[in-house]
Amino acid sequence: MVAGRLFLWSAACDEWVSCPPDEITWLDRGILSDNEDLTLHRAPRCAGLRYVHHRWELFSRDATYQVYLAPDNAGAPLRAEAVRRTARHVLPTAPESYEARPVVLDQGLWVVSVADWVLRLRLDMAAAADVDAAAPDGDREKVTVANETVRRGAAGAIRKDAVPRVRGYFERNATARLSMAYYYQEFILGISTPQTVPMLDVVIALNLSGEGAVSDYKKLLQGFIWSERGHARDLTGFLLTNRLLTPADLNEARLTADRNERDGVCEAARQRLRYRPKGK
């Protein structure tokens, strides 16, 4: 059982159709237009819905159209213009080869618009206690670890504005966000017994200023979150539990690293890091 059940309104079936949590529901030309609109993309180059980190999210890899998400006001006509006018979230066209940052869906009724097409969504949330009790052993362990991290952090004086401060910092400093996503990639992917990526590998992959850059980011983030020192081990859980790092961030970080490798940036960074100027 998952934290919420997501449904799409099917005009063909005249009923709500459930989205499976273990696979992506692609909002492709088939679902949106019954394959009538050939300007719409097919998977995986379109928008989609997926269940990650115990939440449903809307994401987009569409390089042609923006994706609009608006509350579904009862009785409002399903017109793309109305959705664009009342949109609460707008996913921009995706940069080449990776997706725009996703939007976490809240409980309730929503409408999604791509080009001139509109689709209704409904997210029914389950109680948090039910989720923890019904989760598979592996998922329950992850939830327990994440919740325990938050509880320890609460006892350790988490700042009231910690989440918006970190989110604002990541929005202003993409390099820091990508560095932390690359560093914690095994945790983001949910790999069993995850390990952090060696800091020097992160520095080379993302062409950071020096060997201490990742450590500096970690210290800065801890200062944003806790009013006392000594929470290095809690940082990962806080960032993931509060969705401050997501698979989309990791995807962007990996693509940046791949591009740097192709363009010779990584090799230049390796040479730079080997260089040790002699003291005068």
Protein model, in words:
The protein has 280 residues and is of the alpha+beta class. The chain is built from 12 helices and 10 strands. The protein has helices spanning 29-33, 80-86, 128-134, 137-155, 162-172, 174-183, 185-188, 199-206, 213-225, 235-241, 247-262, 265-274, and strands at residues 4-10, 15-18, 25-27, 47-52, 55-60, 67-71, 89-91, 100-104, 108-114, 117-125. The protein has a 6-stranded antiparallel β-sheet, with helices on one face. A hairpin with a 2-residue loop joins strand 4 (47-52) and strand 5 (55-60). 31% of the residues are buried.
Helix/strand order: EEEHEEEHEEEEHHHHHHHHHH
In what range is the share of β-strand residues? 15-25%
Structural class: alpha+beta
Radius of gyration: 21 Å
Count of alpha and pi helical runs:
12
What average pLDDT do the residues reach? 82
Q: How does the major sheet shape up?
A: 6 strands, antiparallel
Number of strands: 10
Beginning-to-end CA distance, first to last residue: 65 Å
Summarize the amount of helix as a percent range.
40-55%
Return residue spans where pLDDT drops below 50 for at least 5 consecutive residues.
Answer: 127-155
Describe the protein's topology.
Elements: E1 4-10, E2 15-18, E3 25-27, H1 29-33, E4 47-52, E5 55-60, E6 67-71, H2 80-86, E7 89-91, E8 100-104, E9 108-114, E10 117-125, H3 128-134, H4 137-155, H5 162-172, H6 174-183, H7 185-188, H8 199-206, H9 213-225, H10 235-241, H11 247-262, H12 265-274
Antiparallel strand pairs: 1-2, 1-10, 3-4, 4-5, 5-8, 6-7, 6-9, 9-10
